[in-house]
Amino acid sequence: MSVHKRSDTGKWQARIKGSDGIRRGQSFRTKADAERWEREQIRMAEQGRLPPVLSGRESVASVGDKWIATLDLAVYKPSTINGYVGLWKRIVRPRWGSVPLTNIQPADVREWFLSMTGESSDPSKKQLSLSRRKQSHQVLAMILDQAIREGKLITNPARWDAVGKVALPKVNMPKEHRYLNPEDLLELVNACKEYGPFVYFLATTGVRFGEARALMVGDIAMTSNKLRISKSVTEINGHLVKGTPKNGESRTLILPDITLNRIKPLLIGKSSEDLVFTGPQGRAIRHANFRHRVWVPALNATGNQGLRIHDLRHTAASLAIKSGANVKVVQNMLGHKSAQMTLDRYAGLFESDQVDVARRMDQVMAEPACHENATKTPRIILGQVIPKPKPPANKGKDLVAPTGFEPATHGLGNRRSIP
Hints:
The protein is mainly alpha-helical. It is built from 15 helices and twelve strands. The protein has helices at 31-46, 60-69, 78-96, 106-115, 130-149, 182-191, 196-205, 209-213, 257-267, 287-302, 311-322, 327-334, 339-365, 368-375, 382-385; strands at 2-5, 12-17, 23-28, 160-161, 164-165, 220-221, 226-229, 232-236, 239-243, 251-254, 399-400, 409-410. Strand 8 and strand 9 form a beta hairpin. Helix 3 packs across helix 5 and helix 7 (196-205) packs across helix 11. The protein is elongated. Residues 399-419 have low confidence and may be disordered.
């Protein structure tokens, strides 16, 4: 094996000689990347694995198109697959589709990540959000992982460079959410007219839009106010697809009476299999139609321009926390995967609760009874604890007078040296 710099391209080339006697190599921008590739070949040889034949002729598209077409519904949710397809077609494939697999360098991937603008090659076009760029990078990395499984790559340049794992910037969650207070919420509910109960339900339960439109009458226990969330409806290419909630787990909520009373009229005359919330034709509510025909006009009428439908979920979290719910209750209510996720999103609301707790603590400690109990500690009289000694038979003779709380001691009367 050897690593040398090519005079014609200026790149560093690492070459290996296979068991068939044929030399194969790869070119890298840096010497460190070339040496890392060489070390990987040595490691594989020590493990008894022959390096794959790297012809360098196959493109990223040859692997990516096949990978996209074979995504398993048993592993990924339909909405997830639809998202991967969109990222591949609009962002990843236009940049990497024609590039040979062995020509992808970590430095090229980093440069693409920092300047990613989607389908446009115009540098003046607005850069994609950090979250969107990370999703696109993940799709490229997963496709290159598949190339490794097929023996067409040794390492993944989207995940590893010469010094180790590629570290991408973290996606910081927005610190400020938009919440509606009860008065503004009621005003918005009234502006949504016949869809008012639907909006009120979203804003007081925190149920996701897709979960709410999949809700059936049988999922509500009227006597116990229990609500079972076990389904969700997603729109994919204009089709409604039923699946499980976002994390794949069902959950049970307790509906406030005021929320249950709002939706009770919608349940009259329906069977347990009927949808609770429906559109004009009795079918599941379409997100785009609801937003265009109901949501935006209601925002304009109430002066809440820019409010998202998802902000109703944040409003529900805010109302629950102000009502005294702890983080575990809010986590279950919203269907978050972990309590840490709930804290990351709503830490500011829980911080305000800490102020309320401190004030209540002040009130508790300021109560007169508390101070009285703290200061009026009963005095312990040692005489009540240590009983008086009984006088000996030879009363008053050969005794030493007790000092302090020491009991009288016999046999010391003649030892005058002891004071």
